[in-house]
Structures
1.
Amino acid sequence: MSEGDLGAALGERATLVHFSTAFCQPCRATRRVLADVSALVPGVRHVEVDAESRLDLVRRLAVTATPTVLVLDAAGRIVRRAAGAPRKAEVLVALAAAVTSESSQQPDEM
Protein backbone atom coordinates (compact mmCIF):
# COMPACT_ATOMS: atom_id res chain seq x y z
CA MET A 1 0.00 0.00 0.00
CA SER A 2 1.37 3.41 -0.88
CA GLU A 3 0.96 6.99 0.25
CA GLY A 4 -1.04 7.54 -2.94
CA ASP A 5 -3.49 4.81 -1.93
CA LEU A 6 -4.02 6.34 1.51
CA GLY A 7 -3.76 10.01 0.62
CA ALA A 8 -1.35 10.38 3.57
CA ALA A 9 2.28 9.71 4.38
CA LEU A 10 3.29 6.31 5.71
CA GLY A 11 4.98 6.03 9.08
CA GLU A 12 8.74 5.74 9.20
CA ARG A 13 8.54 2.36 10.99
CA ALA A 14 4.89 1.31 10.60
CA THR A 15 1.42 2.63 9.76
CA LEU A 16 -1.89 1.89 11.45
CA VAL A 17 -4.64 2.17 8.83
CA HIS A 18 -8.12 2.49 10.32
CA PHE A 19 -11.18 2.10 8.09
CA SER A 20 -14.17 3.78 9.72
CA THR A 21 -17.60 5.23 9.03
CA ALA A 22 -19.32 8.26 10.52
CA PHE A 23 -21.87 6.39 12.62
CA CYS A 24 -19.69 3.51 13.79
CA GLN A 25 -19.52 3.55 17.61
CA PRO A 26 -16.59 1.07 17.89
CA CYS A 27 -14.68 3.27 15.42
CA ARG A 28 -14.46 6.02 18.04
CA ALA A 29 -12.82 3.72 20.57
CA THR A 30 -10.51 2.37 17.86
CA ARG A 31 -9.51 5.91 16.89
CA ARG A 32 -8.49 6.64 20.50
CA VAL A 33 -6.53 3.40 20.86
CA LEU A 34 -4.65 3.90 17.59
CA ALA A 35 -3.93 7.56 18.34
CA ASP A 36 -2.55 6.59 21.77
CA VAL A 37 -0.36 3.85 20.32
CA SER A 38 0.97 6.02 17.49
CA ALA A 39 1.85 8.74 20.01
CA LEU A 40 3.57 6.16 22.22
CA VAL A 41 5.67 4.41 19.56
CA PRO A 42 8.16 6.55 17.60
CA GLY A 43 7.94 6.29 13.82
CA VAL A 44 4.36 4.97 13.80
CA ARG A 45 1.61 6.88 12.02
CA HIS A 46 -2.16 6.48 12.36
CA VAL A 47 -4.16 7.07 9.16
CA GLU A 48 -7.95 7.00 9.27
CA VAL A 49 -9.80 6.22 6.04
CA ASP A 50 -13.50 7.00 5.61
CA ALA A 51 -14.76 3.72 4.17
CA GLU A 52 -17.80 5.35 2.55
CA SER A 53 -15.73 7.80 0.54
CA ARG A 54 -13.02 5.28 -0.42
CA LEU A 55 -15.07 2.37 -1.75
CA ASP A 56 -12.36 1.62 -4.33
CA LEU A 57 -9.84 0.93 -1.58
CA VAL A 58 -12.42 -0.88 0.59
CA ARG A 59 -13.19 -3.27 -2.25
CA ARG A 60 -9.58 -3.79 -3.23
CA LEU A 61 -8.62 -4.68 0.35
CA ALA A 62 -11.80 -6.70 1.05
CA VAL A 63 -12.81 -4.55 4.02
CA THR A 64 -16.21 -5.91 5.06
CA ALA A 65 -16.78 -4.19 8.41
CA THR A 66 -15.86 -1.08 10.34
CA PRO A 67 -13.69 -0.67 12.17
CA THR A 68 -11.06 -2.59 10.26
CA VAL A 69 -7.43 -1.98 11.14
CA LEU A 70 -4.47 -2.82 8.94
CA VAL A 71 -0.93 -2.71 10.27
CA LEU A 72 1.59 -1.87 7.57
CA ASP A 73 5.34 -2.27 7.83
CA ALA A 74 7.70 0.53 6.76
CA ALA A 75 7.42 -0.55 3.11
CA GLY A 76 3.61 -0.44 3.16
CA ARG A 77 3.07 -4.20 3.25
CA ILE A 78 0.08 -5.41 5.29
CA VAL A 79 1.42 -7.55 8.13
CA ARG A 80 -1.63 -7.66 10.43
CA ARG A 81 -5.35 -7.12 9.99
CA ALA A 82 -8.29 -6.95 12.42
CA ALA A 83 -12.02 -6.41 12.07
CA GLY A 84 -13.60 -4.91 15.17
CA ALA A 85 -12.13 -2.71 17.85
CA PRO A 86 -8.67 -3.95 18.88
CA ARG A 87 -7.29 -3.57 22.38
CA LYS A 88 -4.17 -1.48 22.93
CA ALA A 89 -2.10 -4.57 23.84
CA GLU A 90 -3.12 -6.29 20.59
CA VAL A 91 -2.07 -3.26 18.56
CA LEU A 92 1.31 -3.11 20.32
CA VAL A 93 1.96 -6.80 19.58
CA ALA A 94 0.96 -6.28 15.94
CA LEU A 95 3.31 -3.30 15.70
CA ALA A 96 6.17 -5.38 17.04
CA ALA A 97 5.58 -7.81 14.19
CA ALA A 98 5.42 -4.94 11.67
CA VAL A 99 8.70 -3.33 12.67
CA THR A 100 10.53 -6.67 12.63
CA SER A 101 8.68 -8.05 9.60
CA GLU A 102 10.38 -9.61 6.67
CA SER A 103 8.28 -9.99 3.56
CA SER A 104 5.41 -12.29 4.57
CA GLN A 105 2.89 -13.66 2.12
CA GLN A 106 -0.38 -13.37 4.04
CA PRO A 107 -1.20 -10.88 6.80
CA ASP A 108 -1.93 -12.41 10.19
CA GLU A 109 -5.04 -11.61 12.18
CA MET A 110 -4.69 -9.44 15.30
Note: Residues 25-40 form the longest helix (16 residues).
2.
Amino acid sequence: MVLLKAWAGRGTPLEGGMPSGHAAFAFSVATTVALAPVGSVVMLLTLSLAVMIAHSRIYMGIHSVQEVLAGAMLGAGVTWVLHLCFG
Protein backbone atom coordinates (compact mmCIF):
# COMPACT_ATOMS: atom_id res chain seq x y z
CA MET A 1 0.00 0.00 0.00
CA VAL A 2 2.77 2.39 0.93
CA LEU A 3 4.56 1.64 -2.35
CA LEU A 4 1.40 2.47 -4.32
CA LYS A 5 1.09 5.77 -2.49
CA ALA A 6 4.72 6.60 -3.19
CA TRP A 7 4.25 5.71 -6.86
CA ALA A 8 1.14 7.92 -7.12
CA GLY A 9 3.02 10.79 -5.44
CA ARG A 10 0.12 12.04 -3.32
CA GLY A 11 -0.48 11.85 0.42
CA THR A 12 1.67 10.31 3.11
CA PRO A 13 2.01 6.62 3.95
CA LEU A 14 -0.63 6.95 6.67
CA GLU A 15 -2.89 9.75 5.40
CA GLY A 16 -4.52 10.51 2.07
CA GLY A 17 -3.19 9.48 -1.30
CA MET A 18 -3.90 6.72 -3.78
CA PRO A 19 -5.30 4.18 -2.87
CA SER A 20 -7.26 4.49 0.36
CA GLY A 21 -5.79 2.06 2.87
CA HIS A 22 -8.84 2.33 5.11
CA ALA A 23 -11.16 1.36 2.25
CA ALA A 24 -8.82 -1.46 1.22
CA PHE A 25 -8.76 -2.92 4.71
CA ALA A 26 -12.52 -2.49 5.23
CA PHE A 27 -13.41 -4.21 1.97
CA SER A 28 -10.82 -6.93 2.61
CA VAL A 29 -12.57 -7.75 5.88
CA ALA A 30 -16.00 -7.56 4.20
CA THR A 31 -14.82 -9.93 1.46
CA THR A 32 -13.42 -12.36 4.01
CA VAL A 33 -16.72 -12.38 5.89
CA ALA A 34 -18.69 -12.79 2.64
CA LEU A 35 -16.56 -15.82 1.70
CA ALA A 36 -16.93 -17.38 5.16
CA PRO A 37 -19.88 -19.56 6.14
CA VAL A 38 -21.77 -16.86 8.07
CA GLY A 39 -25.33 -15.70 7.89
CA SER A 40 -26.52 -13.08 5.46
CA VAL A 41 -27.21 -10.63 8.30
CA VAL A 42 -23.56 -10.69 9.40
CA MET A 43 -22.41 -10.34 5.80
CA LEU A 44 -24.74 -7.38 5.21
CA LEU A 45 -23.64 -5.64 8.42
CA THR A 46 -19.97 -6.08 7.55
CA LEU A 47 -20.51 -4.75 4.03
CA SER A 48 -22.46 -1.81 5.45
CA LEU A 49 -19.59 -0.99 7.78
CA ALA A 50 -17.10 -1.10 4.88
CA VAL A 51 -19.30 1.27 2.87
CA MET A 52 -19.58 3.63 5.86
CA ILE A 53 -15.79 3.67 6.28
CA ALA A 54 -15.31 4.39 2.57
CA HIS A 55 -17.95 7.12 2.65
CA SER A 56 -16.36 8.75 5.69
CA ARG A 57 -13.02 9.03 3.87
CA ILE A 58 -14.73 10.92 1.05
CA TYR A 59 -16.96 12.98 3.35
CA MET A 60 -14.02 14.14 5.49
CA GLY A 61 -12.14 15.19 2.35
CA ILE A 62 -9.25 12.83 3.04
CA HIS A 63 -9.68 10.87 -0.21
CA SER A 64 -11.36 11.34 -3.56
CA VAL A 65 -13.98 8.94 -4.89
CA GLN A 66 -11.39 7.40 -7.23
CA GLU A 67 -8.95 6.78 -4.38
CA VAL A 68 -11.62 5.11 -2.27
CA LEU A 69 -12.85 2.97 -5.17
CA ALA A 70 -9.27 1.92 -5.96
CA GLY A 71 -8.72 0.95 -2.33
CA ALA A 72 -11.99 -0.96 -2.17
CA MET A 73 -11.24 -2.88 -5.37
CA LEU A 74 -7.67 -3.57 -4.26
CA GLY A 75 -8.73 -4.86 -0.84
CA ALA A 76 -11.58 -7.00 -2.14
CA GLY A 77 -9.63 -8.25 -5.16
CA VAL A 78 -6.47 -9.26 -3.33
CA THR A 79 -8.50 -10.97 -0.59
CA TRP A 80 -10.61 -12.83 -3.16
CA VAL A 81 -7.50 -14.03 -5.03
CA LEU A 82 -5.88 -15.18 -1.77
CA HIS A 83 -9.02 -17.11 -0.86
CA LEU A 84 -8.99 -18.76 -4.28
CA CYS A 85 -5.34 -19.74 -3.89
CA PHE A 86 -5.37 -20.87 -0.27
CA GLY A 87 -9.05 -21.49 0.53
Note: The radius of gyration is 13 Å.
3.
Amino acid sequence: MPSGLLLAGEDVTLRDREEVRNRLPDILGRALARSWLDPDFEQYFSIDPLGALEDGGVHLPQTMFIEVTKSVADRPKIVVYERQEGSKFKSRVLYLQLVMVAGK
Protein backbone atom coordinates (compact mmCIF):
# COMPACT_ATOMS: atom_id res chain seq x y z
CA MET A 1 0.00 0.00 0.00
CA PRO A 2 1.57 3.31 -1.08
CA SER A 3 2.11 6.01 1.48
CA GLY A 4 -0.83 8.35 1.66
CA LEU A 5 -1.01 11.87 0.34
CA LEU A 6 -4.13 13.87 1.04
CA LEU A 7 -6.07 13.83 -2.22
CA ALA A 8 -8.22 16.82 -1.24
CA GLY A 9 -5.52 18.80 0.56
CA GLU A 10 -7.17 17.95 3.87
CA ASP A 11 -9.13 15.17 5.51
CA VAL A 12 -12.63 15.27 3.97
CA THR A 13 -15.86 13.46 4.83
CA LEU A 14 -18.52 13.62 2.13
CA ARG A 15 -21.84 13.12 3.86
CA ASP A 16 -24.43 12.73 1.09
CA ARG A 17 -25.07 12.23 -2.62
CA GLU A 18 -24.94 15.97 -3.38
CA GLU A 19 -21.56 16.46 -1.69
CA VAL A 20 -20.23 13.42 -3.54
CA ARG A 21 -21.45 14.82 -6.89
CA ASN A 22 -20.02 18.27 -6.18
CA ARG A 23 -16.63 17.43 -4.68
CA LEU A 24 -15.63 13.93 -5.72
CA PRO A 25 -14.93 14.53 -9.45
CA ASP A 26 -12.00 16.86 -8.63
CA ILE A 27 -10.69 14.42 -6.03
CA LEU A 28 -10.96 11.47 -8.44
CA GLY A 29 -9.11 13.55 -11.04
CA ARG A 30 -6.26 13.95 -8.56
CA ALA A 31 -6.33 10.20 -7.89
CA LEU A 32 -6.11 9.48 -11.63
CA ALA A 33 -3.23 11.93 -12.03
CA ARG A 34 -1.40 10.24 -9.17
CA SER A 35 -2.10 6.87 -10.82
CA TRP A 36 -0.22 8.00 -13.93
CA LEU A 37 2.83 8.90 -11.86
CA ASP A 38 2.76 6.17 -9.22
CA PRO A 39 2.32 2.57 -10.45
CA ASP A 40 1.85 1.27 -6.89
CA PHE A 41 -0.97 3.73 -6.28
CA GLU A 42 -2.51 2.87 -9.67
CA GLN A 43 -2.63 -0.81 -8.74
CA TYR A 44 -4.01 -0.07 -5.27
CA PHE A 45 -6.63 2.37 -6.60
CA SER A 46 -7.80 -0.06 -9.29
CA ILE A 47 -8.18 -2.92 -6.78
CA ASP A 48 -9.54 -0.96 -3.78
CA PRO A 49 -10.63 2.54 -4.78
CA LEU A 50 -12.48 3.19 -1.50
CA GLY A 51 -9.45 2.13 0.50
CA ALA A 52 -7.15 4.31 -1.60
CA LEU A 53 -9.47 7.29 -1.12
CA GLU A 54 -9.67 6.70 2.63
CA ASP A 55 -5.88 6.47 2.85
CA GLY A 56 -5.84 9.77 0.93
CA GLY A 57 -8.12 11.38 3.52
CA VAL A 58 -11.40 11.14 1.59
CA HIS A 59 -14.33 9.39 3.25
CA LEU A 60 -17.59 8.57 1.46
CA PRO A 61 -20.99 7.62 2.85
CA GLN A 62 -21.28 3.90 3.57
CA THR A 63 -23.94 3.60 0.87
CA MET A 64 -21.41 4.55 -1.83
CA PHE A 65 -19.04 2.29 -3.70
CA ILE A 66 -16.73 2.76 -6.68
CA GLU A 67 -15.88 0.62 -9.68
CA VAL A 68 -12.69 1.28 -11.65
CA THR A 69 -12.33 -0.40 -15.04
CA LYS A 70 -9.59 -0.19 -17.61
CA SER A 71 -8.95 -2.19 -20.73
CA VAL A 72 -5.53 -2.25 -22.34
CA ALA A 73 -6.33 0.49 -24.88
CA ASP A 74 -8.73 2.59 -22.78
CA ARG A 75 -8.23 5.17 -20.13
CA PRO A 76 -9.61 4.30 -16.70
CA LYS A 77 -13.34 4.67 -16.16
CA ILE A 78 -14.61 5.38 -12.68
CA VAL A 79 -18.25 4.95 -11.71
CA VAL A 80 -19.57 5.88 -8.29
CA TYR A 81 -22.71 4.03 -7.23
CA GLU A 82 -25.06 4.29 -4.31
CA ARG A 83 -26.91 1.34 -2.83
CA GLN A 84 -29.47 1.92 -0.12
CA GLU A 85 -29.40 -0.41 2.86
CA GLY A 86 -31.44 -3.56 2.26
CA SER A 87 -31.65 -3.00 -1.50
CA LYS A 88 -30.13 -5.12 -4.26
CA PHE A 89 -30.27 -2.22 -6.70
CA LYS A 90 -27.59 0.39 -7.23
CA SER A 91 -27.94 3.81 -8.80
CA ARG A 92 -25.17 5.64 -10.58
CA VAL A 93 -24.13 8.84 -8.82
CA LEU A 94 -21.39 9.91 -11.21
CA TYR A 95 -19.15 8.69 -13.99
CA LEU A 96 -15.66 9.91 -14.76
CA GLN A 97 -13.39 9.14 -17.68
CA LEU A 98 -10.52 11.28 -18.84
CA VAL A 99 -10.37 12.11 -22.51
CA MET A 100 -7.43 13.34 -24.50
CA VAL A 101 -7.88 16.67 -26.24
CA ALA A 102 -5.33 18.10 -28.65
CA GLY A 103 -5.26 21.69 -29.74
CA LYS A 104 -3.23 23.91 -31.94
Note: The helical segments are 17-37, 39-47, 49-55.
